[in-house]
Amino acid sequence: MALSGIEIYKFLPKTNCKECGFPTCLAFAMKLAQKGIELSKCPYVSDDGKKALEAAARPPIRLVTIGAGDRKIEVGNETVMFRHEKTFFHPTGLVVRVKDSDANAAAKTAGEAAAYSVERVGLNLKVDGIAIENASGNAEAFVKCVEAVKAKANIPLILMSKDPKAMGQALEKVAGNKPLIYAATKDNCDQMAELAKKHKCPIAVCAPEGLDALAELSKKLMDAGIEDIVLDPGARDFGKSLTALTQIRRAAIKKSFQPLGFPVITFPGEGASSVEEEALLAAQQIAKYASIVVLDHFSPSVFYPLLTLRLNVYTDPQKPIQMTPGVYEIGKPKADSPLGVTTNFSLTYFSIAGELEASGFPSWLLVCDTEGLSVLTGWAAGKFDADKIAKSIKQFGLADKVSHHKLIIPGGVAVLRGELEDELPDWKIMVGPREAVEVGSYLKQQWAK
Amino acid sequence: MSPVEVPIEKWTGKISEVTLGGKGGRKGVTVGGENTLPFLKFEGTIPHKPVVAIEIQDRKPEDWSPHLLSVWGSVMDDPGKWAKKAVEYGADIVSLRLRSAHPEAGNTGANEAKKSVEKVLSAVDVPLIVLGPNVVEKDNEVLAAASEIGKGQRLALGNCEEKNYRTIAATCMADNHIAIGHTPLDINLAKQLNVLLSDMGLPTDSILMDPDVGALGYGLEYSYSVMERLMLAALGGDKMAAMPKVLNVGTESWRQKESKATEGLPTSWGDHMQRAIVWEEATAIALLNTGANIVVLRHPKTVELVKAAINKLMSA
């Protein structure tokens, strides 16, 4: 948690020696609080003071990296309980679990999951990693499966075994990829910690007994010099998971309680009895404080909605995704093709563009700069009005692009019609449907006539 | 090591309580009353769990997804039968939308509205939400008719919007019903409408609010944060943000291409039926975790899943 200048001042020598370049220690402390200077500029700060100030500068939840390369997973480093307070920074990693009881099936699923990609609002959403569980209990089978999966899926891995021997052998093969070791428990903690240190891999701790036990275990690893830790509170069902994850997040953010200041991993399949219920619990965990969610099933019909949910929850509330204002061509429009106008809120654009695409009518879509606001919000905020639309028509030279001089406006802002007819006397203003889904039938009925 | 100290928030406010039904032979369902964030029973009390309503319409909605048409089947031809089936599928409340009153969907009026509401009232004994077609003049007409038929049975009538709140609120006060105030995704507009309704003399126990739903992928993040901010304001003591919240999750979710369209979709979207269910349930669970008191759903499978999840969340 960030300290104020006065709090920092307490740790400084208070001699006003000026060697840091500031007239007083207090002035230096104030600058430090704004992160405008480094503590090392003070030659006389005590070791204790240094430690305390460094600890205070540490993020409340550590950023942990799993895997290496382009598709590595970075989670943690969150600073708030609610997204509207600032934003959530590092999107939940969505991982598919396979089991070593059938290496071929595991590799096949892993390959499909790793190759999966779905497009939404111009982004390609993907599965983040593969967890391989040592369900067979056999070290050799585990290593074989890990290698088979790695060959098919070049994305981050989570190695799941409670057996340090199996874990050690698998790490010998894939440690360079920085997999997450899952998990240290109270029974195998020392051996697993050794493996994490030796291979410089992140490690999860699992303590289903409760948060005290979980904190104790993570503290033990911290004392052993391990920094990259992931927490599994072992709370599996809807209620217990929500409670545990909320409490961990609060202890970390509000109390800077370091042993719980790490990303959290969940296994919704263990708290559910069907694929749909697993998806439901995963959705809750994406919304409420899970950093990594490991699902037992891979299917696009579940991952597409979950990846979309993650995108929604982790979108910066201060920066809606925006389109560049201008004229967009849907299909190959000609001078007699319909022309519609909408806002530059990406979601609005993609909804309309998708419907136009599906309608079979090549069209012109004029996108006005509403600073990323949707139709109704933009209208309410005065960013999507007759004046703005008329200016955009002129700015983008639409009078030359379309021969018919007809403009379709969203049904939600039908009230703008009169004003627009005043602003654009040579144009005919048509009121389109309120909802994007009705665009196709509207064009069939109103335009094709 | 010392035990983990979990910060407990000391909230001063709570959500108001509203009982739908409970009069005139109708079962009562009470929502609200919680003085903590959703399902966090370690720091407060949640006297009434969130409930699930099922949306039905007065006429068979031909434009619904084929999955909804096939799962409901022939009962959709009769709102009474449809309501009965909805209760069998676990609806705590039936939400009847009088869509045929829409000028483009039949433009029916008070008489047909009365008949539809009467059918549903006599078919089931759970509380009823009655929604107009979302066209102000028609809403006023059909909701007044519904109010008269259900007089004294504590129906919830919506939508009450800035343009017509006076009419609906007066109707609710005259016939002892509950008004649902609807505002478009904005915390201040939502609070403002509650103030207007309260100034009309409508008591707090007769106001529900619908701060609007953006479905998953279609503005859910806005809904999510408007809901959380309303919840925090209410727990902080703002009584005009403290009305229980009813959210039309099914309507919004099933309106989207991901749930509705069946042809020409990318293979990366996966199995249509499962995707549509997950779309609806994910929207529902995200919003339940922001403080929804009533979620209105469309598919029986989602209803089953969401109800089970609520029970598990409440038993922690």
Describe it for me?
The complex is a heterodimer of chains A (449) and B (316). Chain A is of the alpha/beta class. Chain A has 3 domains: 5-57, 3-methyladenine DNA Glycosylase II, Chain A, domain 3; 64-314, TIM Barrel (Alpha-Beta Barrel), CATH 3.20.20; 326-447, Rossmann fold, CATH 3.40.50. Chain A has 17 helices and 17 strands. In chain A, strands 10-9-8-7-6-3-12-11 form an 8-stranded parallel β-sheet. Chain A has a 3-stranded mixed β-sheet with strand order 13-15-14, with helices on both faces. A two-stranded antiparallel ribbon of chain A has the order 1-2. Chain A is flat, with a radius of gyration of 28 Å. In chain A, 50% of the residues are buried. Chain B starts with 17 loop residues before the first strand and ends with a helix. In chain B, helix 3 (110-123) crosses helix 4. In chain B, the strands form 2 sheets. In chain B, strands 8-7-6-5-4-3-10-9 form an 8-stranded parallel β-sheet. Chain B has a two-stranded antiparallel sheet with strand order 1-2. By secondary structure, chain B is an alpha/beta fold. Chain B has a single domain, classed as Alpha-Beta Barrel (TIM Barrel), CATH 3.20.20.20. The interface between A and B is large, with 66 and 59 residues.
